[in-house]
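Practice problem 4.
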């Protein structure tokens, strides 16, 4: 993701962030992306275990609160930003918060693999937007066929959960576009840290209203910190570093593995078994995303990739 120094006070990175950057820089970029995918899906699996105690809103609140706290400590961003930069940060944060709220509402109702597969239609739509190539039409039809298979593969699939996943996917599409703007206006992880604070401000009131004092249980706080690290801090940081070292198109192709990884982790960690038709549906969406990203023009590829979503 391209970055500039617009809107940031001129000061060098902190020793802590420099040390972190050197450690991450030693890992090959493709491995960074794959590690980010595994991390975010493990975080989602851990989050699902919290639903019975603090609900989906409470889990989102814990995740974004701790993620914001860790990222602010890690990057210590300057608050001296231009007005336009603040608009981008605020928009990014609000969409990030809404995306997570919708995704966790979906995750409470449908298996992890299905929630991620449906949500992935958002970035796929961004990749295909405005294309006039017949091959991109094929990828769109393949993805649509995958969604049909998802719905037909098992009769007890909760339609409300699917709708929440679609809403999360819509937010993800907008988030990608705002993420590109955030990268142009801020440096390193500074915009991400500030955006995460805004996202936490969006989500925490919902979590407090739903769960109240249950959020303050020690084991819940520890689990919430784990979700934040696995689902936000680690994958977002790895993705941002990978995007500095590999073309966005390659990043997008690797990210296309996310629905399949979600289905696999859902099976292994959560014992969520999908019907054979739903596995085919997941693979259809993976193939459509990889094909659309691989064939995207450089400028379009740049806007159709971004940090891991949920």
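Answer key:
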């Amino acid at each position: 993701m391209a970055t500039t120094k617009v809107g940031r006070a001129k000061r060098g990175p902190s020793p802590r962030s420099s040390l972190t950057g050197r450690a991450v820089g030693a890992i090959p970029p493709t491995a960074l992306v794959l590690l980010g995918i595994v991390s975010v899906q493990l975080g989602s699996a851990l989050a699902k275990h919290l639903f019975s105690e603090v609900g989906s809103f409470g889990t989102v609140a814990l995740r974004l609160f701790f993620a914001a706290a860790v990222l602010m400590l890690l990057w210590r961003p300057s608050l001296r930003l231009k007005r336009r930069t603040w608009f981008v940060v605020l928009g990014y944060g609000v969409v990030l918060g809404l995306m997570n709220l919708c995704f966790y509402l979906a995750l409470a109702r449908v298996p992890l693999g299905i929630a991620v597969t449906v949500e992935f239609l958002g970035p796929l739509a961004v990749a295909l937007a405005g294309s006039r190539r017949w091959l991109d039409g094929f990828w769109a039809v393949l993805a649509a066929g995958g969604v049909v298979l998802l719905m037909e593969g098992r009769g007890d699939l909760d339609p409300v959960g699917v709708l929440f996943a679609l809403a999360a996917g819509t937010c993800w599409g907008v988030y990608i576009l705002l993420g590109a703007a955030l990268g142009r206006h801020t440096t390193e992880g500074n915009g991400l840290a500030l955006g995460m604070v805004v996202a936490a401000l969006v989500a925490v009131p919902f979590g407090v209203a739903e769960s109240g004092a249950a959020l303050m249980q020690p084991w819940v706080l520890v689990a919430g910190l784990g979700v934040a690290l696995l689902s936000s801090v680690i994958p977002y940081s790895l993705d941002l570093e990978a995007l500095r070292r590999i073309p966005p198109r390659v990043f997008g192709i690797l990210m296309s593995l996310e629905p399949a990884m979600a289905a696999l982790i859902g099976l292994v960690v959560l014992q969520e078994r999908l019907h054979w038709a739903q596995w085919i549906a997941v693979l259809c969406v993976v193939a459509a995303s990889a094909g659309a990203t691989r064939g995207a023009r450089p400028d379009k590829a740049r806007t159709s990739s971004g940090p891991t979503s949920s």
